[in-house]
Write a structure and sequence with these properties.
Length: 288
């Protein structure tokens, strides 16, 4: 007989945490037992309670005092994450980090998703990283990139206070991940938050400079990478792709597919979908 659902908890009740709770609520293998925030009156905690989750405004202490959970999603902030891991390390919990810290093992499901089964401290890089890295990694298998530039543009309303405070960490970590997964010696990441109305969907533009490109192979690699992402994030789409002798330009657009966030917040939908996918794979592996 299969085991019961895997107990999980969510640290953070902002935009990301609220959508995570919604996705876990619809999972066949995960059960959200606790959502922890810091403001008892926050909308995120109220929505979590409406979905039947126990909630607390007691921070990491409340989580440590609760029934142990096999998996914890950290959707708080980069500043708080190091303490969270230090406090949870000895508990046996697997911590999936959705904050832009340079801690833990960097994981992007289509690139190295199996690594999540071998480590207890998983780093999901950033929403921009989750959008760009499947494509860039696939491209790098068919060329030797010399320079990569990634420009992410998201709606202002999709970036909460913690995300705004952590933009420097977001950029540094995403650049480090690009270098790690592609071998490129130089990578540059830029982030734009736009107040435009109506709010535009999350968009990521990538430029790769590499000598001796083979356009047919590159196009096939990009198409295959996009299909892998759409398997867990259906709103992921390639909107343009141009390849010449030494330059690749790719643009992707991500829209949110249901849940507790608007369609334009594809950045949140994508990283949360990756987090839940890895947690479900972890739960399945542990139940065998």
């Amino acid at each position: 007989m299969p085991d019961a659902k895997k107990n999980v908890a969510v640290l953070g009740a902002g935009l990301i945490g609220t959508d995570l709770v919604s996705k876990v609520h619809h999972s066949k293998t995960l059960d959200c037992r606790l959502v922890v925030g810091r403001d008892r009156a926050s909308l995120g905690l109220r929505r979590a309670a409406d979905m039947g989750c126990a909630t607390s405004a007691g921070g990491i202490e409340a989580l440590l005092e609760s029934e142990p959970c096999g998996i914890v999603f950290d959707a708080s902030s980069a500043d708080a994450h190091a303490e969270h891991w230090a406090r949870l390390r000895s508990t046996g919990t697997t911590l999936i980090d959705l904050t832009p810290t340079q801690l833990g093992t960097m994981v992007v499901p289509p690139v190295n998703g199996q690594a999540a089964l071998e480590h207890r401290h998983i780093n999901l890089v950033s929403c921009g990283g989750q959008a760009a890295l499947p494509v860039l990694h696939a491209v790098a298998r068919h060329c030797v990139p010399q320079y990569i530039e990634v420009v992410s543009t998201g709606a202002s309303a999709s970036a909460g206070p913690a995300t705004r405070r952590n933009l420097d960490q977001y950029i540094a970590l995403t650049q480090a991940a690009i270098r790690c997964f592609t071998g490129v010696p130089e990578a540059k990441v830029m982030v734009n938050l736009t107040p435009a109305r109506p709010a535009p969907p999350f968009r990521v533009a990538m430029t790769v400079l590499a000598p001796g490109l083979r356009p047919r192979l590159v196009r096939s690699a990009v198409t295959a990478a996009a299909a892998k992402v759409r398997a867990y994030a259906p709103g992921f789409a390639i909107t343009s792709l141009a390849v010449d002798d030494d330059r690749i330009c790719v643009a992707v657009e991500v829209t949110a597919a249901g849940g507790r966030i608007p369609r334009y917040a594809g950045n949140l939908d994508l990283i949360n979908a990756a987090a839940v996918l890895l947690a479900e794979q972890y739960a399945a592996a542990r139940s065998c």
